Amino acid sequence: MHQLTIAEIARGLRDKQFSSVEITSHLLERIQQLDGHYNSFISVTGEQALTDAAAADARLAAGDAPALCGVPIAHKDIFCTSGVRTSCGSKMLDNFVPPYDAAVVENFNRAGAVSLGKTNMDEFAMGSSNESSFYGPVKNPWDLERVPGGSSGGSAAAVAAQLVPGTTATDTGGSIRQPAALTGTTGLKPTYGRVSRWGMIAFASSLDQGGPIARTAEDAALMLSVMAGPDTRDSTCLERPQRDYSASLNDSIQGLKIGVPKEYFGEGLDSEIGARVQEALQAYEKLGAELVEVSLPHSKLAVPAYYVIAPAEASANLSRFDGVRYGYRCENPADLRDLYMRSRGEGFGEEVKRRILVGSYALSAGYYDAYYNKAQQVRRLIKQDFVDAFQKVDVIMGPTAPNPAFKLGEKNADPVAMYLEDIYTIATNLAGLPGMSLPCGFAHGLPVGLQITGNYLDEARMLNVAHQFQQASDWHTKTAPAAE
Amino acid sequence: MAVDAQTVEKLAELARIAISDETIDEVSNRLGDVLQLVDQLQAINTEGVEPMAHPLDEVQVLRADRVTEPNRREEFLALAPQTEAGLYLVPKVID
Q: Are B12 and A357 inside 8 Å of each other by CB?
């Protein structure tokens, strides 16, 4: 049963092949038996899930079932869930039980989905390996000595290990696409503003965007159709109506123009990954697509610009964790200053503190123009590269990550080396474009991700293009070896 | 590029994050690495380029000025480490 995709589960439930209680119990049992190997969940809400599943079964029986009625999913622990601890992977929020649901959680509840719990993540979504979580690292189901990527490492690993068919995730610099690539799953980061950020704990507000991780593009489309839509409670959420992203999955891609940026195949790319991506591009040619070389000349500046903008915004966003209103407070503060200093010093992990300090530097008096303003100008140059490329092509493709899953601890000592793992994904966030990663083979025995970047608001086409590849290949059906 | 201990202490004060004396060298070195990475931006000519605030150049959405949220004071206060008489409690700030 755990091999089933969301589309298959939704169909099976409607055709009464099994009940939501049956599949929910089966997956909860699997989580209990296997997640000790992966650590992909921070909280499992089994009792609530079974109650919700029973309610879903009643609605299915009554013929009054919304789109994902009875389908099990899990939420990244960055989305606030009413009555369920929402930690954001941090000691700071270890005791935080939100009194409300995030917009994304509301949307899935409305669609009848059954949440099994909250998935592990890098602390405050800052990381590319899921090693900065207060709750310990997540292990990659393909090799338990390797990382699953991050920051949505738990969401990706849980799907790869077939503990749940789909999860919510967030992507600020690659945190959906990179873990999807490293675990052989399909992940989608929508256009900035497609999905409401209300109740999604903020990291870098001009870059953060929620999206799904699943096994197939078809499932990602089903999830996005539920997740995305306008929300007046998030002033950056786009006023574009909710829509059905599945409707065009089967459209022909004959004549599709695929841009291939030469900058994404240079130094630093693992040669086997490069080969797998080239093979995927050839497969697209066989499907009738045309490859067009494009150039993104400012792409090498994406990582430096990001490591000004994201920490600057993070330093402002994370100032709300003050030990006064919620979250961690130090023992016996001597005075108010001591309360702030020690609550934050003890409550945040090393990477989070480092980024807050970098952000404080970039925003401090005398440096604002040299750093933050400069980075925002470079950001426009990066965006313009994409705008120019999309004059000539429909989608852009390349590798999602330069390396396959690396060993736990391998890049911990060198933050800059870790940052460069996001070298191909970050530009998409800076430009605000939608992006996907889907499995396209193996390098050194580990999954490889093909990245698709779409034009603004062109998620439906991106999903169509990904689905057509998955109709003609079977990489997305490969499963990680069973944990022993 | 190294960041000296004095700068780290100043940043820690600005960010209200206590950093222990034992870790200050480590923090200085790592901050230096990050700043060296971002200093690549300085070589780029950005004269006349408008800084980018929103990818789609959308404007701020306004909504009608009316009450939509209920008052949930008790629920929010229940999350705080310390409260008294419906207020958040912190160490004494005035003598």
A: yes
